[in-house]
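Sequence only, no structure available. Ideas?
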Amino acid sequence: MARLATVLILLASLVAGCSTMEVAVDYDRERSFSGLSTFDWIPDPKTPTGDPRIDDNTLLDRRIRRAVESELMAKGFAKSAESPDFWLAYHVTLDRRQSVSTINRRYGYGPGWGWTARGEPYATRRRADTFVYEYDEGSLLLDVVDPEGRDLIWRGAATDEVSFSASPAAREQQINEAVRRMLKKFPPK
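Reply:
I predicted one. C-alpha cells follow.
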C-alpha cells in the first residue's frame, strides 16, 4: 500500500511539474515599437526540420497562424499584405526529454538516530525507487521581423510538454495559451 501511495505521489508531481509552460521574450531595446500597426507573414518558405510530425503539418500551421493573428488583432493590430509594418515567422521544434526522480522509501531517523535495533547503520537499510519519465518537449518560436532590413526585432519562445494523443481541442488550447503568454507584453514599451 505504501508503494502504491509513493507511485501516485510521484505521478502527480510529474504531471504537475511537466505541465508548466516556460515562456521567454527578447527584443531590440533600441527599436521603437510605437509606430507598428500592421503585420503579415514573412513570404519566405519554411526550412524543413526533418521531423514528419512538424513538416507539412497544415493543421499545426493553421492553429499557430490563427492563434497569432487573433491575439494581435485583439491588441489592435491589422493584417495587411501591402507594406506591413512588421512580418511574422514561426519555428517549431520537438525534442525527446527524460525526467528522472528518486523517492526514498524511508524518512525519519529510525531507532537510535541512525542505528537499527540490531546495531546496523540505518543508512544501509534505506531503499529508494527511481522513476524515469520520457516525454516530447515542443518549442514554439515567434519572430517579429522588420520588412525593410529583414532584421529580427522581437522573439517570443514557449516550451512545454507535447502529447500526440491529446485531442485536437487540447492541442489548439495549448497553442493558444503559448501565443497568448508570449504576446502578453507585445509590443514592448
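Helices lie at 2-18, 58-74, 168-182.
Hope that gets you unstuck.
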